[in-house]
Amino acid sequence: MKIKELIKLTLRGFRILYFCAAMNKLDTYKHVGMRRKLVNELKELGVTHSEVLMAIDKVPRHLFLDKAFEKQAYENIAFQIGAGQTISQPYTVATQSALLEIKKGDKILEIGTGSGYQTAVLLELGAKVYSIERQKELFDKTKVLLPSLGYKAQLYYGDGYKGKSAFAPFDKVIITCGAPFVPPALVEQLKIGGIMVIPVGEGRVQSMKRITKKAKDGLIEEEFGNFSFVPMLEERQ
């Protein structure tokens, strides 16, 4: 092995050790215990998808919130994260993640990065995530936070209604805000056999829909109850 390669491997090892040490200070046994309680609560609410529960058990939700909310971070409630947006309650995150039926290596388009918590759960499930955020304030914060926690996703600031055609087709598409309608561009960017999970409705409550693309013009639509999301922002000109 060449000296340069050995040095690179050594430095990489130091970075990993530093990251692990930093995470141990930020994510303590107390937080791990709080997550276990949350997972048990989700089970009681009917969440049965074992891989999703394991992902939620791993992601340190308190690090995606303001420190003032640390004690409440693992309660099954939503929180304000700035720019008029919220981090979804864990039950909603678990439901959407389970409906996607993620397989390791799936290429997923996420509309609404927000705090990055849902993004992290998708990554823990083995997905490759392309995520779009419309609020510049949140985009700037999350593009720093996720890598600092060891999560690698392709993050973009832009219009969620347009998706990311340059990287289409996607195996799955998830929308984490209330859409007034199903954006045609997102359906177009979904592969044949792919799944989209999207809350649809213009009021304070939306209907959670799972749309499976069976053919170019053939869609199967299922409904999974009502949820509450902040609205998907209007298209940019």
Topology record:
Elements: H1 3-26, H2 29-44, H3 50-58, E1 79-82, E2 85-87, H4 90-99, E3 107-111, H5 117-124, E4 128-133, H6 136-148, E5 154-157, E6 170-175, H7 184-188, E7 190-200, E8 206-215, E9 218-227
Parallel strand pairs: 3-4, 3-6, 4-5, 6-7
Antiparallel strand pairs: 1-2, 7-8, 8-9
Helix pairs in contact: 2-3
Strand residues, percent: 15-25%
Distance between the termini: 54 Å
| CATH homology group | Vaccinia Virus protein VP39
Number of helices: 7
* Global structural class: alpha/beta
Provide mean pLDDT, rounded: 89
Reading the helices and strands in chain order gives HHHEEHEHEHEEHEEE
- Quaternary arrangement of the chains shown? single chain
Query: Helix amount, in percent?
Result: 25-40%
Shape: globular
Largest sheet: 7 strands, mixed
Instruction: Please identify, by name, the CATH architecture.
Output: 3-Layer(aba) Sandwich
The gyration radius over C-alpha positions equals 18 Å
Low-confidence stretches: 6-24
What is the CATH fold-level name?
Rossmann fold
CATH top level label: Alpha Beta
Major sheet strand order:
5-4-3-6-7-8-9
Please give the number of β-strands.
9
For the record, the count of structural domains works out to 1
